[in-house]
Amino acid sequence: xxxWHCLWGxxxxxxxxxxxxxxxxxxxxxxxxxxxxxxxxxxxxGTMHVGRPGSDAPDWGLKQAMAQSEALxxxxxxxxxxxxxxxxxxxxxxxxxxxxxxxxxxxxxxxAQLRRIDVERAQAQSLAPxxxxxxxxxxxxxxxxxxxxxxxxxxxxxxxRRERRPxxxxxxxxxxxxxxxxxxxxxxxxxxxxxxxxxxxxxxxxYYRELIAAWERGDLxxxxxxxxxxxxxxxxxxxQREMLDRRNLTMARRIDELxxxxxxxxxVGALHLAGSQGLVKLLGxxxxxxxxxxxxx
Length: 297
Known about the structure:
This protein is an alpha/beta fold. 50% of the residues lie in helices and 12% in strands.
């Protein structure tokens, strides 16, 4: 599973057109923490933006987290009425600039990959390359039976509707779009190269499954270690700085602001929780007592 998958699968919520296969229902896991300050306890959940069909049954811990919270907070509320149209508009607006950022080799690599999914040059150039790279990433997930409509966020939104909890967002579509569709040329070219290099590697499926298993165990240390394994596509310096570290600082500040008025269940991509600049550490630095949440009574 490329690191980009964990960070940007949510962006393709508008592409929930993949077929679902039958599977036995299993409880959803993933890292879950409580964070408390001034007598008020909140929950922090590290999500996976895709999941297996039938794997969207919340476990006891998540049910408790939702029951004891007054609002669900996500990275982005993809159920907002204008969200899909805004994403497409941003991808179209950024298309010409991003295609110009690709050098000859990276443009050739991306077009070759898109032809394999029946996307020809004219169609490809109508959207920003970053949008197509996310689609290619989700195609890899699909081959493993991992679909966006079965991801953690979809399950949590359903729970929030049942419990009549409001859904809040830490970021706007425009904020995410500016970062994604205005990334510097070296970072975009590296993304293209890594996607092409990783394509059809025999060890890819094993790596994907190990990363998914680490998330299901809630093992943040394993997740953090796997994104730095030698021989696999790694987070670039720009990705680590812009897509994780800086966003985490903003997320921590906005979470802190929201906690003043209500109890929260905050759910963001699992990599946002991990590492020295992850939300677990940042919330601790803001005076919260952060602990693993119980997953069973």
